[in-house]
Design a protein that fits this description.
alpha+beta
Length: 303
């Protein structure tokens, strides 16, 4: 037997096994055909049920139902849309210039008003801070010019449905309608009634990163979920109750063998049996509400 010929092969196998362990190959517990096995799915669904049960009737749920949590973009573009592709590009890159004075307001409170129920009073963000929240770029490329601002209001989707809220209306050079920036600050996120599950301990369960959008009829939502470089992408399932919608995510088609540790995000559309309405949207892994968030920014709902 040629033992010298076997040593390089053994060494190669050892190196491949080490690379696989470092990259987490196979830790999503997939069965044949890249689908999660029954045991993994049962663990994920059991965790989702635990999260739903923990939130039902809890102090956190009560605080959530009384608070203000925006679930849409807090910056709203002019009603006319962008007049040129150059302006659209300037907005995408958040490139603005200020050619005027912004109002200095005294310490006042902003309002949040729903169609029913008592309105909510919230601290008001100043015009300068509101401007700085979206004017993040000051390069020489295409940019939009802000010439002033006044305090007004706008409508935004929240965790309790549509609400009229105080907003700064920024005048843009060349536009008849303003760019609106919600001026009221969100409520403090209540402490979740259940702790986060350990990553990889619940049948390959992963975190749902954020809500990207809700259909007009509320019967489907689009979320951003994570996956690796050696799988078929994220799979997001849902557990619906009268009070909550719990999302539990995993990956499909995980491949064996060496793989990079690259983490990717992908949009996933999730169908609901009933409109989302004012039900709380929860993530099974973290046990927390799923925040609304833009593709390249932090959630405006909470950080």
């Amino acid at each position: 037997m040629n033992t010298q010929a076997k040593r390089p092969v053994s060494l190669l196998l050892a190196l491949l096994l080490g690379a696989c362990l470092l990259a987490g190959c196979g830790d999503d517990q997939r069965g044949d055909g890249g689908h999660a096995n029954n045991d993994s799915l049962q663990k994920q669904e059991r965790r989702a049920r635990e999260v739903a049960d923990a939130w039902q009737g809890s102090a956190a749920a009560s605080a959530w139902s009384q608070g203000y949590y925006p679930m849409a973009d807090v910056v709203q573009t002019p009603e006319s849309g962008w007049l040129t592709e150059t302006d659209a590009r300037a907005y995408e890159t958040k490139n603005f210039v200020l050619r005027g004075k912004l109002p200095i307001t005294a310490t006042v409170r902003g309002k949040v008003e729903w169609g029913s129920g008592a309105p909510l009073s919230r601290p008001l963000m100043g015009a300068q801070k509101a401007y700085q929240s979206f004017a993040l770029n000051k390069s020489e490329g295409p940019r939009l010019t802000v010439t002033g601002a006044r305090l007004g209001e706008t409508t935004i989707t929240t965790s309790r449905g549509s609400a009229a809220v105080s907003a700064w209306l920024f005048t843009l050079e060349g536009y008849d309608t303003p760019l609106r920036r919600v001026a009221v600050t969100p409520s403090k996120l209540p402490k979740p009634p259940i702790g986060q599950a350990q990553q990889g301990s619940v049948g390959g369960l992963r975190r749902v990163a954020r809500l990207a959008g809700t259909a007009m009829d509320g019967r489907s939502i689009t979320v951003r979920a994570t996956h690796g470089a050696c799988d078929d992408g994220p799979v997001v399932k849902v557990l619906e109750t009268d009070e909550s919608v719990v999302l539990y995510a995993s990956v499909g088609g995980a491949q064996g063998g060496p793989c990079s540790t690259e983490m990717l995000e992908q949009s996933v559309k999730v169908q609901l049996r009933q409109p989302l309405g004012d039900r709380i949207l929860l993530d099974a892994l973290t046990g927390r509400p799923v925040p609304y968030g833009e593709p390249d920014g932090q959630s405006p709902s909470w950080t």
